Every structure is written in C-alpha cells, then in structure tokens.
Amino acid sequence: MSGYDLSGLKASFSGKRVIGPMSLKVNPGDKIGLVGKSGAGKSTLIRLIHERVNRDSSLIPQDLGLVNALSVFHNVFMGQLDKHATWYNTVTLARPFAKDRAEVNTLLQSLGMTEKLWTPAASLSGGQRQRVAIARALYRNAAVLLADEPVSALDGPMANSVMTLLRTRFSTSIIALHDVDLALNYCTRIVGIHDGQVALDQPSAALTSSDIMSLY
Amino acid sequence: MFSSPTVRTSLIFLAIALAGLLFADIAITASNPWRDLGNFFLGMVTPNFFSSEGLMTALLRTVAFAFVGVALGGAAGFLLALVYRSLPVRMFCAFVRAIHELFWALIFLQFFGFHPLTGVLAIAIPYAGIFAKVYSEILEEADPEPGRVLPPGTSNITAFLYTRIPDCWVKMRTYTAYRLECGLRSSAILGFVGLPTLGFYLEASFSQGLYSDAGAMLILFYVLIATMPLWVRPRLLPVYILAAPFFLGEGLPIVWGNVQRFFTEDIVPAPLRNGEGLEGLTPWLTDLMVNEAMPGIWNTIVLTQIALVATGIISLLAFPLISNHFGGPIRRNAGHVVLVIARSTPEYILAYILLQLWGPSMLPAIVALALHNGGIIGHLIGRQTSSTKLRADAATGFNRYSWELVPRVYRSFLAFLFYRWEIIMRETAILGILGIYTLGFYVDSAIQNIRFDRAMVLILVTALLNIGVDTLGRYIRRKLALQTMPTC
User: Fold this and answer.
1) From A26's CA, which of A97, A215, B28, B383 has a CA 20 to 30 Å away?
2) Which residues of B153-192 are buried (b: 16+ CB within 10 A; e: fewer)?
3) Would you state the CATH architecture of domain B1-30+269-488?
4) Torsion angle of alpha carbons B206, B351, B175, B232, nearest 10°?
5) A74 to chain B: which residues are within 8 Å by CB?
6) Distances (CA, A) of B197 to B39, B251, B435
7) Residue B97 near residue B136, CB atoms below 8 Å
8) Which residues contact B455 (CB under 8 A, 6 or more apart)?
9) How far is A214 from chain B (nearest CA, A)?
10) CATH superfamily, with its number, for domain B49-266
11) What are phi and psi of A106, to 5 degrees?
12) In sequence order, what E strands does B233-338 have?
C-alpha cells in the first residue's frame, strides 16, 4: 500500500467545530498512536479516517459494533462478509462451514476465548466483547488497522499480548489510546491531539511519557 | 393539579363523553333482561361440550383461518416494511388497516362468496398493513453501528441478514405472537358473517337459546387462547402453517362471473351505471352523505367517545386486581382470570351477547368496548405497577392507590388509551352490523339491499374517519409527550 495523505480533515457537532481543519500523512508501515485527553476528538478522527479510506480498513470502534443476538463466531465472521456470495453468508448464518469454523477458532485461540465460540455476544463480559471486536478486525485482515481504545476493558497482561498481536498482524495502524505507556511501547509514531488539532507528531523513540503528559 | 396538561386533557375528554351521553341512545329494552342474563350465566357454568359435532370443527377452522391469515399478512407486511419509507406504501398500509376485518369479509363475500379465500384475505389484508407499520418501526430501532463496521462490498441482503434481523428478531417474534392471538379473535368473529368459524356456531346456539352450547364454545375459546404458550412452539410453527390451508374447509366454489360483475357493475355508482353521467352523481352523493354517512359518523363518534372514557374508567378500576400492591395471591390470581376473560373475548362477541340479553341500544356496545379494552389496558398498567418499588412506609389501601400508584402510571395509562382510540373507533363502526346506528349499520344495510356502490363509499368514509382519529391520537400523544410501545 502507498500510505495516505489525509488533508482537510474536519468535523462539527451541532455547529461546533470538534476537529480540524487538519492534515495527517500516513506512511506505509507507520504505527500511529493517537493520544490526547478525552473529548479532544480522537474518536471523531478515527471515524473521519475510516470514511476517508472508503471504509477499507479493519475497524475497532469504541462501542465495538457487535450484533448482540449473534454468536461470537458470527460476529467474527462478519469481518469477511464481502469475500463470499450472499447464499454462502446466508447458509453460514444457519450452519457455518467447517473451514470457517476452524479459522475463527484458531483466531480466538490467540485471544484466549475459544470456549465461547457459540455464546451470543449479549451474554459476554466487557473484556470478552472487546476481544470479539478485535478478532473481527483481525479476521477482516485489511491493509490498515483503525482502532479506538481497543484494549480499554482488558487487564494488563492481556492488554499487552493483544497489542503485540495487533502490531505483528497489521503493518500500518492508527490506534487511539489513553494509556500513554502502551502508546509509547507499541507505536512507532505518536500523534497528540488537542482541541481538534495536531499538537504533537514525533517518532515514539524520541519521546518520554512526560513529553506527552503536557497534552493533558 | 388542574393545570397539568394530562389532567386537563382527561377532563376535556370526560366532558365530551358526558355531553355525548345526552345524545346517546342508552336503554335496556328487553322485557326481562336479568332473567336472560341469569340464563346465560347458568349456561356458562353448565357448559355442554357434546351437543353438536360442529363445535370441534368450528374450533379447528377458527385456528386454521387465523394461521393462514396471519402468516400471509405477516409475510406481506414484512416485505412492505422494507419499502415503508415510500409515502405511497405508507398511505396504502394506513388505508388497508383502517378497514376492519369484517368489512373486508363483507366485501369479499360479494364476489368470492363462501370460499375460504374470503376469510383468509379478510384477515391477511388489514394485518399486512399493521405488520408493515410495526415491523418497520422495529427495524428502524435496530443498532446502526454493526452496519458501519461491515467491510465495503458486502451485499445488501447479507448486511440486512447479519446486522438488522438478529437485532430485531426477539421483538418481531413477540409482536407476531401477539398478533396471532388477535388473529384468533378476528377469525372467531368472521363466523358472524357466515364463515365456518366459532362466531357462526355461537350465533346459531344463541338464536335457539342453547346457552350451555354457547358457554362451552366460549370456554373452549378462552382455553385455546390461554394455552397458546403451550401449543404455539417455534418448532411446531412451520407444521401449523403448512397444515392450516388444508383445514379451511371446502366452502363454495368461486364464480368468476361474480368477480367480474362486482368490479365492472356493482361498485360503479348507480348514476354512472345508468348513464346519468356526472350530473346524476351529485344528488346521489348528497343523498348518501346526508341520509347515511352523516348520521353514521355522528353516532360512531358519540359512541366512540363514551366508550373511550368508559374504557379509561374500567382500566383504572381494574388494574389493582392484578397489582401486587394490593391483596394476597389468591385475590390476584382471581383478578388475572377476570382480566384474561375480559380481554380474550372479542368486543364483537361481548356486544352480541349483551345485545341479545338487553335488547338494541348503544349500551351493550359501550359495555362491551369498555370491558374488552379496559381489560387490556388494566392488565398492562397493573403489570407496570407490580414492578414499581414503593418506599417501605408508603401509604396503604386507597391512599396507596390514589397517591402512589395512579400518579405514577397515569401517563402510560393515557398513552395506551389514546393508542387504542383508533381501535375503539374501528370496532364501534363495525358493531353497527349488530343493529346499532353506527357506520357499520349503514354499510350492512346497503349490502343487504344489494347497493354495493353505496356500501363502498360508506366503507371509504369509515376508513377516512379512522385515519383521522389515528392522526389526532398521535398528535395528542406527541403533544403530551406520551410514549407507547406497539404491542398493546
């Protein structure tokens, strides 16, 4: 992929400008950590970028976008609905094919929740729901990952292993994180957002957490 | 208290109903109403299940017509719900559901005759309009977020099946089950116009004074409805739906010449048919409006407004029967039985029975409408109060009723009442067939006199009146910010 040159990013809510106008150049291989205090516009920016790349990305929105009545398997399978014919998807809804079952199962193994394959999403805990959304993004396997606080409901070790997984599986990613240390450890570039503008854009190697704290 | 908009609205409606009482024809004209009522209750407690072999067939036909009608209506309604955004579709649905099942049956009888199709379509058509509206509301409430996350290039059908249907499934299933219960009631009353369902046998037993036979029929009908959760099972549904068309009975064959004549001659206004042209149409229409439509509309409105307020009063009196804030479990269970009977008996059957006992006037219709609709709203409000937690030292008895509970539930009570306003008016119009001078009376007389052109105009007037009241009810609910769910 050739990276993105995103310019003129802007958004308003009920007449009040919350983002931009701002520009962001994303190079292939960039692993961008979006930081900034809550309300700075990180979530809105993730949504804007998602629209800009014509939704051709693996997306983990903050409210996850799970279908509560469907099982974990089906929620993950939704990541590849575009790859199959309508009849195939319809049959899968009633009775999944063995090949897909195995694939999704392997994926869930890496997230430590195989035993929940047929549980409806509605009866999962917050952390489990988040991992289902992550599994869906992994299964989608797009060229770029857009994630909004993907590990906010996971405990420390699980959060680290999921971030490692995301780092290895996606060469390019833009992840909004409120945890500054996670951002420094797992991202190659830190973009700080303040009042809907880029207030900081540095390689993470050149930063310490105290540099970032000035944004808060 | 009198400055609150909900109280003011209630008082205005109460005043209208009291004024209506001055004009309403309310009387008991039967020579010995209490003896007849006593005989009827005697029949209810000494039911005769074995008198006629027709009883079981009637029950089977009632269930079969309900299943086929509701299944067809549900399928058509679902498809219409997908295109419900389009204004012509919305208007079409509003129009077909504004015409009562019995009116549809009367229309189809004229050209399909006593063919099973008449009963099936009489249920399926208005139900399709209702299903379309409610299904589209349910689908609109589905969470839009999962749809946004889908990969681009996902087909519309796939997206619909994965993100909309699962989210709406439970609500749609609950509503469809509720409609099936309504379908059983509709199917039963279709017997009153001659289809082979319960109403037909009920009318026959009554006219011969066989109260024990009638009692058996009513009891079986209550049992049928009360046991629905036991015999309507998701796994059995496909079996029922596939089998039902084979149990509709033979009926009489359709004479296609009648169908053609109905559309090309019968419903063409008389002046046009007789070549008098448009000049003849004005006096014809004026005569129809002044002598039939206007009195019909007036009586329908008067009766509706009285019945609406009576329904409200019955609801408020009835909800403590099942509320767990009053009395012990025995009294509450008895209350449940009373309310189940009140709401399972179709208004039409109640009105028919009371009319036989008390003689013709508006009174049987008012009592029937108030008992049936009051039973429904009382049940919903009672259930709502049971989930209300009061502080431990809250007042008891009548003070608890008037200070703690009624103020809490009054808004949803009004919401349900205004929601049912249109339903009460639909029923009021149809009760005219029993001989009360509402619009249904004039429709029925026009049909008896083989003047289908006049009947069609009067049915059209009835539909427009219903749409008007529905719109007014929605306006008042919005104005008072009253929320209601579709299942009531």
Assistant:
1) A215
2) ebeeebbebbbbbbbbeebbeebbbebbbbbbbbbbbbbb
3) Orthogonal Bundle (1.10)
4) -20
5) 162, 166
6) 24, 12, 21
7) no
8) B106, B107, B443, B446, B447
9) 34
10) MetI-like (1.10.3720.10)
11) -60, -45
12) none
- Give CA–CA dist B299/B265, Å, rounded: 31
Structure tokens of B279?
Answer: 């000049």
The burial of B52, by beta-carbon neighbours within 10 Å (0-12 exposed, 13-18 middle, 19 or more buried), is given as: middle
Chain A contact residues (CB < 8 Å to B): 54-56, 59, 61, 63-70, 74, 78-83, 86, 89-90, 93, 136, 140, 142
CA–CA distance, B304 with B284 (Å, rounded to integer): 28
In 10 A of CB A21, how many CB atoms? 12
- According to DSSP, the β-strands at A16-26 and A197-203 are unpaired
* Spatial separation of the C-alpha atoms in residues B432 and B430, rounded to whole Å: 5
- What SS3 class is residue B243? helix
- Residue B53, judged by CB atoms within 10 A of its CB (0-12, 13-18, 19+), counts as exposed
Residues near B42 by Cβ (< 8 Å), separated by ≥ 6? B211
Question: Nearest Cα to A64, choosing from A111, A12, A122, A143?
Answer: A122
Residues 6+ apart with CB under 8 A from B263: B111
Note whether B60 and B247 are within 8 A (CB).
yes
Ranges in chain B annotated CATH 1.10.3720.10: 1-30+269-488, 49-266
Please judge whether B161 and A89 are an interchain contact, meaning their C-beta atoms are less than 8 angstroms apart: yes
Residue A187 Ramachandran class (φ > 0 left, ψ -120 to 50 alpha, else beta): beta
Residues B321-365: tens digit of each pLDDT: 888 888 778 888 888 888 888 888 888 989 998 888 888 889 999
> d(Cα B35, Cα B259) in Å, to the nearest integer?
47
The per-residue pLDDT for B86 is 92
**Count of A-B CB contacts under 8 Å:** 69
Question: What are B62-119's pLDDT values in tens digits?
Answer: 999 999 999 999 999 999 999 999 999 999 999 999 999 999 999 999 888 889 999 9
Contacts of B148 in chain A (CB under 8 A): 55, 61, 65
Q: What token pair was written down for A192?
A: 């700080």
What tokens were used for B154? 């996902």
Kindly list the structural domains of chain A, giving each domain's residue range(s) and its CATH number in brackets, ordered by start.
1-57+142-216 (3.40.50.300), 70-125+135-140 (no CATH)
Supply B295's token pair: 């009195």
Determine the residue among B161, B162, B168, B171 to mutate to test chain A binding: the one whose Cβ has the most chain A Cβ atoms within 10 Å: B162
pLDDT over threshold 60, residue B486 = no
With a threshold of 0.85, tell me whether the complex ipTM lies above it.
Answer: no
